[in-house]
Specification:
single chain, 146 residues, alpha/beta, Rossmann fold, 6-stranded parallel β-sheet, binds flavin mononucleotide
């Protein structure tokens, strides 16, 4: 099994914490993982991986934030055929479109021919103890799904 790539963005650290928990779950699940901030990753790098997890907080009115937008544009049109994906977001339920970034990212993956193999997780702000279990489980289940 090849390494799994996690690409995430985080302004105040919530999504980064989730990404680290997902990473732990992947390692517990027996796979290797590379976790990168979206600002440090080259768009074409995604083509080197068969399994990728994208994570973003949600901004505006259910949108992906600017720092993820460049990456989102750059991966547009890349061929994701045969690649397996899952998505997570941190958000705030006081907004109308809770964790809307998930839908936007899942849509891009599917338009590019990628396969979503695991239901997304949407976390309220900073992950609490229950969320930590969910995040690690998400990582483990992703390993089982690929
Ligand atoms: C201006 C602004 C707009 C936001 N819009 C949404 C939104 O539409 N939906 C949502 O679920 N959360 C929204 N949020 C909440 C953030 O996604 C949430 O605070 C998240 O935990 C931040 O993650 P981070 O710590 O990784 O930056 C918004 C926050 C701000 C400041």
């Amino acid at each position: 099994m090849g390494k799994i790539l996690i690409v995430y963005c985080s302004m105040t650290g919530n999504t980064e914490t989730i990404a680290k928990m997902v990473e732990e779950g992947i390692i517990e699940g027996g796979s290797e993982v590379v976790r990168k901030d979206v600002l440090e990753v080259d768009a074409n790098e995604i083509l080197d991986y068969e399994a990728v997890i994208l994570g973003s907080y949600t901004w505006g009115e259910g949108e992906i934030p600017d720092e993820f937008l460049d990456y989102y544009d750059e991966i547009n049109g890349l061929d994701f055929t045969g690649k397996k994906f899952a998505v997570f977001s941190s958000g705030d339920t006081s907004y109308d479109n809770f964790c809307g970034a998930v839908d936007i990212l899942e849509n891009r993956i599917e338009v590019n021919g990628g396969q979503i193999v695991l239901k997304s997780i949407k976390i309220e702000q900073y992950p609490n103890e229950d969320d930590e279990v969910r995040c690690k489980e998400f990582g483990k289940r992703f390993v089982e799904s690929i």
